[in-house]
Design goal:
Layout lengths: L19 H12 L6 H8 L5 H13 L3 E6 L2 E6 L3 H14 L4 H10 L3 H17 L42
Antiparallel strand pairs: 1-2
Helix pairs in contact: 1-2, 1-3, 2-3
């Protein structure tokens, strides 16, 4: 049976997409200047979200290392440790970590990219190689001459491609 909209009990409410609520909660946290309570997040998001739903989402984000919390009285104050892009990258990384044939998954992903996204990925890999001290002329270019799976990361430290020097989900400080 479909959920009913509180304003119009005869009209079903819109169902959120997977991860949409996590993104909204993380976005609200990023707007705060200081750590905030779950009640603040609930109020900020408005709508008909239950307090327990907000706490559940915050706890899931904590498990994903996308937020941190500190004790404040009998409750917690929450702050973001990742942005929306970092959360998406973490989801992609966890999906990849769950597959037995990483190379096949990565190959399928890369070959399905539109040309503009492929160019962005190439540029990011080249930048990552340059910051890791690997010169493109030494066989480390992103077009296939080097192994792009050893430490490529975005500027905010969230691993995009397998960082062999870090545990899954771990980021640089």
């Amino acid at each position: 049976m479909a959920q009913r909209n509180r304003e119009d009990p005869h009209r079903p409410s819109r169902r959120r997409g997977q991860g949409e609520l996590e993104s909204q909660v993380l976005g609200a946290l990023r707007e705060a200047e200081d750590p905030v309570t779950a009640a603040w997040v609930q109020e900020r998001l408005g709508g008909d979200l239950a307090y327990t739903t907000v706490v559940t989402i915050l706890t899931r984000l904590l498990a994903k290392d996308a937020v941190a919390r500190e004790r404040r009285g009998r409750s917690f104050a929450w702050r973001p440790t990742a942005d929306i892009a970092g959360l998406a990258a973490l989801k992609m990384r966890r999906l990849l970590d769950g597959e037995s044939d990483r190379e096949a998954v990565l190959a399928s992903f890369v070959t399905a990219l539109p040309p503009d996204d492929e160019q962005v990925l190439r540029a990011l890999l080249e930048t990552a190689h340059a910051t890791d001290g690997v010169d493109a002329s030494d066989g480390g270019d992103a077009s296939g001459g080097g192994d792009a799976s050893d430490g490529a990361h975005t500027e905010d430290g969230v691993a995009v491609v397998d960082g062999a020097d870090r545990a899954p989900g771990e980021t640089e400080d």
